[in-house]
């Protein structure tokens, strides 16, 4: 699909007098090719998912979740989290809205876990960097982690760890507005502009670092120190927590590291943790839930991500 971009990058590198397979030439080729490929697929995937998301405003999402009891609710919440991704700044109003309308705590957390893990921009970049198989694994893993995490939190019966004032809030019934097709397309296009405007710099920086790794770091170094090390998955998960703000920039870096021998599971753990274990989200959630529940949320999600990382390192 992107052979033309690969050939274009080769022409540019050779025109500059560099070998596209060696050192700086390989780094520059990686940078040019990945920049073209990722930005195009980002535009396409963000547009498609944003269009789908226009059918699921928060009010409609809440109404849907109210109808599904038990583990079915956790599954539905995780599935809705895929098409309604949110940033950390929206975690508090979403949490309050779900709890206020009677959505169970465990179901609410299934949504809160999956929604940031599986977002359209990350899916588009994974599709561009690794192909359909890895991108699909990423989505399925995010859904499973959300379902399992939400079920466990629900079993712990931690409703008393929600700040009392949350249960007393009466947000009222929100009207679900009808949207025309033109408005949906306009929403999708505006969301594309907004997301790319916010992430393009992180993406370019990540591609640049990935290019340096691709061209300058020997594969033997990665395979010796990171390839099959037992501690790389938890280390990658922990390191990812403070990197939320440039999560998308980690994907090109992961692509380069995998190309040098890093385990796919380790890379997946790193990428999922950058969004699911966000420090900003934890700080904001403290406004509505107590530290014990925040710790439980982070611990369960981190363990699920690490399990996923080990699993895919073994089977792939």
TrEMBL record:
Keywords: Cell membrane, Membrane, Transmembrane, Transmembrane helix
Pfam families documented for this protein: ArsP_1
Membrane-spanning parts: 30-52, 73-99, 135-154, 195-213, 225-245, 257-280, 292-315
One GO term describing the cellular component: plasma membrane
Keyword match Membrane: yes
Record's bilayer topology term: Multi-pass membrane protein
Keyword Transmembrane recorded: yes
Protein's cellular compartments: Cell membrane
Family affiliation: Belongs to the UPF0718 family.
Protein name: Permease
Natural source organism: Geotoga petraea
